[in-house]
Design a protein that fits this description.
Bound molecules: pyridoxal-5'-phosphate
Helix content: 25-40%
Distance between the termini: 20 Å
Number of helices: 13
Oligomer: single chain
Mean pLDDT: 97
Order of helices and strands: HHEHEHEHEHEEEEEHEEHHEEEHHHEH
Low-confidence stretches: none
Strand order of the largest sheet: 1-9-8-5-4-2-3
Largest sheet: 7 strands, mixed
CATH superfamily of the largest domain: Type I PLP-dependent aspartate aminotransferase-like (Major domain)
Strand content: 5-15%
Shape: globular
């Protein structure tokens, strides 16, 4: 029996060669490849500025810091996300507030966001679940009305499009965060980036990445640098960015293959009464980071059967506020009923560019047998 994982990176010979070359260069950490990678991703997404960091999580932290989230501030996000989205708000001393998702897309519902905006609200963090962009026009209108900062968590959505523009262009937001973790669309091992069109935010995040230090002033002499606020060492290395630059050239090919696999799943599961899939909305071109289905039958039984037949299924995600740490903080069960209903029925199927057509058929057959 062949095991099919739920995700896998695609590292090819030219990726290996690019990293090997970078390892022999004089710079190991902060070299020219970091800036080159930032410029290349910014150009791909059509954003003005980009800051590369050592993970998507530190990129979220940098964005929340730049947005001015601090003690007492609230930020509204989706409960159906990786914990890092909400944790980044906590890192800054803020309080994540969860707005429920829409049934068809499992993306945050703008009406639910509107209902949770208060005086203390500072930011909105929509998460483009599974790779499909949220309703950014509506979210951006809400943000303008209430003077809120919008940070897109696009860790599932590099290569996706909304209204004909690449996610990351920040047309409807202040900042967009992507991840280059191994399971994501392209990888640097660990890594992340924030895209923005705002120079003020860009400058803040550059300093945040390296201890809050700037070398802008040389009042004392050429050796001189100043620490202006408490930052971190969130720097990514040059050889990781060598991998990133090499991978970026393949992003469109990877996304095309992901979309092809999703289309085959859609066609097959559309005919199975016991399975519901995510809708792709008009104006949205999903990058299909993951392929979640909802099953009518007992989820646990279907999941265990699939695992036993070698299909590396997973579940994305337990609503963040149901995590023990969040429960201890006092977040109540029942606050986002749609998210909880989704979680009870969700199974994520394998989806990655180097899946073969036979792998796809094997997954479809296994799902049919497991229902
Ligand atoms: C992967 C991911 C992150 C965090 O990225 P890392 O690079 O693993 O730190 C944040 N949010 C979402 C939705 C993710 O999928």
């Amino acid at each position: 029996m062949k095991n099919i994982p739920y995700a896998a990176q695609s590292i090819e010979d030219d990726d290996v060669a690019a990293v090997a070359q970078a390892l022999k260069a004089p710079y190991l950490t902060q070299g020219p490849l970091v800036g080159r990678f930032e410029q290349a991703v910014a150009a791909y997404c059509d954003a003005k500025y980009a800051v590369a960091l050592n993970s998507g999580t530190s990129a979220l932290h940098a964005a929340c810091f730049a947005a001015g989230i601090n003690n007492g501030a609230e930020a509204i996000t989706s409960p159906i996300t990786f914990v890092a989205t909400a944790n980044a708000v906590l890192y800054c001393g803020g309080r994540p507030v969860f707005a429920d998702v829409q049934a068809g897309t499992i993306n945050i519902d703008p009406a639910q966001i509107a209902a949770r905006i208060k005086k203390k609200t500072r930011a909105i963090l929509p998460v483009h679940f599974a790779g499909q962009p949220c309703e950014m026009e509506k979210i951006s209108r809400l943000a303008k009305k209430h003077r809120l900062t919008v940070i897109e968590d696009a860790c599932h959505a590099l290569g996706a499009e909304y209204n004909g523009k690449k996610v990351g262009s920040c047309r409807y937001s202040d900042m967009t965060v992507v991840s280059f973790h191994a399971v994501k669309h392209i990888t640097t091992g660990e890594g992340g980036m924030v895209l923005t069109n705002r120079l003020d935010l860009y400058k803040k995040m550059l300093m945040f990445r390296t201890h809050g230090i700037t070398r802008e002033t040389s009042a004392e002499g050429a050796w001189y640098y100043e620490m202006r606020f408490l930052g971190y060492n969130y720097r990514i290395t040059d050889f990781q960015c060598a991998l990133g630059n090499s991978q970026l050239k393949k992003l469109d090919r990877f996304v095309a293959r992901r979309r092809e696999i999703a289309a085959r799943y859609h066609a097959a599961f559309g005919k199975m009464a016991g399975v519901t899939t995510l809708d792709e909305k008009p104006g949205c071109r999903s990058a299909w980071h993951i392929y979640p289905i909802m099953v009518k039958a007992d989820r646990r039984k279907v999941f265990d059967k699939l695992r036993r037949s070698g299909i590396g299924v997973n579940v994305h995600y337990l609503p963040v506020y149901l995590q023990p740490y969040y429960q201890e903080m006092g977040y109540k069960k029942g606050q986002c009923p749609q998210a909880e209903r989704y979680y009870e029925k969700a199974i994520t199927l394998p989806l990655y560019p180097k899946m073969t057509d036979r792998d796809i058929e094997a997954v479809i057959k296994a799902v049919g047998d497991a229902l």
